[in-house]
Every structure is written in C-alpha cells, then in structure tokens.
Amino acid sequence: MTSVTVDIHLPIRGKKRMLFGTSKLRMLRHIPFGKCHGRRMMGTVFFMLATFGIYHFTTVTTVVDITDRVYISPSHLACQIPELSVKNPEIYHLFHPVDPLRCEPEADWVQVEGSVATITRQARKKHGGDIECAFTEIIRVDDDTSRNGLTTTTHDSFTFVNTDFYKVSCEAKDGEKWENVIAGIRQDEEVMEKTGWSKVPKEGLGVNMIVFVFDSLSRNTFIRTLPRSYEYLTETLGAHILESYNIVGDGTPQAIIPILTGKNELELPESRRRMGNSAQYVNNFPFVWHEYAKSGYVTLFAEDQPHIGTFNLRLRGFDSQPTDHYMRPFYQEIFPTYGDNPKYCLKGTPRHRIFLDYLRNYMTVYKDKPKFAFALHAELSHDDYNLINVADDDFHDFLQFLKEDGHLDNTVLAVMSDHGHRFTAVRKTQQGKQEERLPFVSITIPPMLNKKVPTAVVNVRLNSRRLVTPFDMNPTLLDIVKFSGARLGQVTDRGISLFSEIPPSRTCSDAFIEPHWCACLTWEKVSTKEERVKQAGKAIVHYINTYTAPQRSLCLEISLHKINWASKLLPNKGLLSFKKNADIDGFVPDMSGETNITQEVYQLQITTNPGEAHFEASLTYNLHQDSFSVKIDDISRTNKYGNQPHCVVKSFVHLLKFCYCREPPPRPIVQEP
C-alpha cells in the first residue's frame, strides 16, 4: 500500500491566536490520505490550501508502508528520553556545510586493491612510461614502535605478504620521484588456515559482525552532518536506530570498553600508564574478538588517531597484536607527516578514504570467510562537529559497496558513535548536554536472520525504543558466535543482548547509569490550574481540530472540558549540575555546573466534548520562543471511541480516535475495529 504524506504548516490567526495569549502554537501536520490517487488527491490538497489559509506547503513525499515495522508508544517506558529536535534553533545555527578537502592535485602513483598494489597507468603515461617502485615492509614491534623489513622492487605490481603496511619509494623515467605509505590486506596463509565457516560453532548465528564507530557524534549530529549516509542506512538498508542508547561514562574508553569487554575500566586489570610498572598491557582484557578468533573468524581492529587511541592515551596499549589485522602501525608511521601533507590528506587521497578502503579491502579479500571488525574513526569529528560532513559521500559509497557486493546478505552491521560532543559550543546548551549522552547507534540485520531467529529480530526492533547502554552491546556481539536465545531480559542484568527483549521498566539505576549521565527525564507533577498547563490543554484541542479540519463536513470541532492531570518532564538534577570530570581518568564528576533549562516536556490528560473523549498527549514547550509543539503520534485516545467516528471508519481511518461525527450513526452500529 502506498500512502501520501503532506507536511503543512498552519498559522494561528484572529480569535484562535488570541485564545493562546502570547504563546504561538507551531505545528507540523502529517495527514495520511490512504488510497488517494491522481486528481482526487490533488483536489483534496488544493481544497485544504484554499480553505485554511496555509502559508507553507513544504513537501509532498511518497511513503511505502512497512507492514512488519514494530512501533511501541514510549509512554509506557520507565525511561522517557527527550525528543530533541534536529533543527533546534539554539543549536542548529552552529552547523554549516564545509568545503571539500583539497588534496594534492596529482593522483597517487600506486593504487591498492585487496592484497595487490599497482603502479597506475596514469602515472606511467605522465612520467615517461617506466616507473620503478621499492616497497619496504613496516613491521610492528609494539604499539609505539615499528621497524623496517624487507624491500622489494617492481615496475608493475606488488602483492602484500608479511604485513599490511609498506613504505613506497618510486622514481620515474623522467626523473620525478614519489613517496608514500600504503595500506592493504596481506595474503596470510596462517590466517586462511585457521579461519572459515566450517570452524564457526553450530550454536552461532552464522553471520559476520562489523562495527563502525565515529567519534563524538550525537544521534542528531549524525543526522545533521551525514545526511546521505543516514538516509541510506534508514531507507535502503532498513537499519534500526537505537533512540534511547545512553552512555555510561565520560569519553571514548568508557564508551568502548564495555562494548568490547562487558566490563568498566575499574573492573579490569590495572592498565593506566601513570601507574608505572604495575600497569599491565590491555591484552589481558576479555575482548570479544578473542571469542570470534576461537570461532574461526578473521578479526580486525582499526583506529585512525594514534596519539589519542582508546587503549593508548591513558592506558598501556597492546603488547602482542590484538587482532589478525590491526591498523595502528600504519597511523603511527604517517602521523608525523601530517604537517607535510594537505590538511586531512595523505598525498592525493583524503585520510578518511584510506581508512574506509582498508575496510573495503578486508571485506573483499575475506569475502568467503567469517569476519569480525571493529573500526573507530575519530580525526574528522573529535574536535569539530561540522568537518565530518566531508566524509558523507565516501561513507555513503562504502555502505553502498557493502550492500551491492553482497556483504550485507550475511552481516550484522552496527554504525554508531561513542558519545556526543563534549567540548564545543553545542555542549553548552541544555539540548547539547542531553545529546552528549545520546550517541548515534544503528543496527542493520541481514534478511537471513528474519528466517533463522525471527523473535530475536523483533526484539531488536522493540529495543530501538528501550533504554540501551554500551554494556548491552557486549552480549549482543557474543550472541553472534554463541546465540543464547531470544528471551525476556531481566531488569537486574547490567548487560542484555539486543536479541533479547529489554524490559520497558528498565531505569538508569537498573542499567548502571549514574544520575549525571542519565538522559531519561524526571517526572514532576504540576497543578492543572497553572496558566501554562491551561495553554497546553488548549494547544492539544486546537491541534486535534486542525487535524480533523479537512473533514469538517463530517467531524465536529471539539472543545476542552477538563484537564484531568498534568506532569512535566525535566532532565534530572545530576545532568543539569554536571560540569566536567574532576579527575584525569574520568571516574569522579565535578557537579558544580548550572545548565539553563530551555525546553520543557508536558504530558496532560484531558477530557473533550462532545463525547467525553479522553486524550493523553505530550507537548514540548520552548521557553525562548514561548511556544508549544506537538506531533500527532504523541496524542493517544485513552477511552473507547465506540461508534463516535462511524462516518470516517471506511474512508479516513487516521481520524478514528479524533472524530466525533456530525450525524448519528446508522443502524446497525459500526463496530470499532
């Protein structure tokens, strides 16, 4: 079934505006027309335009109903996450498009595809035909040092064998020289022999697991700055967005360590560099990739900022290489040359594209092998909330590659961030503080799991609106190699797999989230006699009347009879008073901050006439703009409507809970569907 959604802004004029005093009701209408086609649809739209004085006809879009989509109203959840507008003017003005990166105009002389580096035809043609290149191995010693290995000279192509990373020095026939560092996937017989689908446990789900993490992007900032990628994830890949994913600590380690180990830093062996000889290497952590390696998977771990690495800035890092493919030696080699290259480039290639190409080559070389990869990209987003926009097209293309090359046929893909921005102008606002705690997290499920474990897939959908933390990601990753079943999670469990149902009663306390990191809103009962509550009640009624207005010949206007109760949702006091961490490890909070409240969420139950209908609704009040905003999905009918909407039951089903028909019902009485 195809429906049409028309987004319309309606003004409040004359007496209706006076009704709200100084408040301005700003509304965005979403009116589904069902099976409404061609001239009939256009006639209806133009009738609305002519009749209601609409001044912004913003968009007409076609939407395909997804019959298996699960939608659960958040009103029953113990944790109420604030609905934060992507275009909140307090924040949105800080975001702007950025210019493309300007790398060296001449293309790189050597290109890498999978395990093979090739001197390009363009370089040969430009520089007299023959080019000789020397490839020198970069051999990892430890996380902080590497050494040169063997050097091989070629005039054509070269195959990666002993390492993924090589220094390249080329000289052309015309005397020109070119040097660079390249990354590819070595041909490793040992890796090939120890991995394979035949070695994957039968109790596993039989799929790959790929996790791609961006540093410092809230859910809203991801949408603002990576719009093509977001659209591809949601519209083409059908990714599930975890709208209530809440961080559990400050900074990247406190976001990543629970995902990869299921523990927080204090529960793990002492590894802080400043502890000197007592600090252990982090190899002793129970990383999830150990389970994948034992189960026949090819493993990869990649980060692009060696000086602030998750396990290297404060922690001692790795002694032995942690995974089959590990990108740190590459970035350790090129990091000192950043000042000699165009900004954010390595010679003629953007550095983020090199990162993506490494993953692309990994997926290609091991297409027929089970894979686990965890990649964290930080350079573009760690210190700037606009710059990541330059990677939108490239990341979109990477996602497209994964789909079109068939990798997503048997891969669970998590695209996410560790946390929102922590040190920028955005963070100084109330919404920015909330966004810091709500990073972007998406899960794309391969179609094969819909057949293999359908209940588990349904649970992922349900959990997209439940309170989720990094601790829940760990059992989710472990379920890939040893599926524990699709169950109802226990509220007492700190980590609950996304393939099990997270209880709707879960609170921040249950999930081991300290109050100052909790984004859940706190209920505060308010008097129904407060002037703002009265305005909110009138706003709900006005919105419902506007929603039914196109069918006014069928449906009566309703009026406010009574406000039964009202509550206000506010950020908890811990969130508002948190300023920063008081220690260098991020364990002790400084609670001396004072964040001004700029938005309040009200929830009301009202009774309207005629018909004594009971409605519950959530509205957002903007203190700066003195305005309410409400969405039709946030209004619920809480008593039976019976035969009140009999006149629209066949033609305008979206009005069933709102319409009180002008004419009495015919006999026999139409039953409520």
Helix and strand topology:
Layout: E1 2-9, H1 14-18, E2 24-27, E3 29-32, H2 38-52, E4 56-64, H3 89-92, E5 110-113, E6 116-119, H4 121-126, E7 131-140, E8 146-154, E9 157-159, E10 165-172, E11 177-183, H5 189-194, E12 208-214, H6 219-225, H7 227-236, E13 240-241, H8 251-261, H9 288-294, E14 298-303, E15 325-326, H10 328-334, E16 345-346, E17 349-350, H11 351-365, E18 371-377, H12 392-404, E19 411-417, H13 430-436, E20 441-444, H14 447-452, H15 454-463, H16 470-481, E21 521-526, H17 531-548, E22 559-571, H18 573-577, E23 580-581, E24 589-590, E25 599-609, E26 613-622, E27 627-630, E28 635-637
Parallel strand pairs: 2-27, 12-18, 12-19, 14-15, 14-18
Antiparallel strand pairs: 1-3, 1-4, 5-6, 6-9, 7-8, 7-10, 10-11, 13-20, 16-17, 19-20, 21-22, 22-25, 23-24, 25-26, 26-27, 26-28
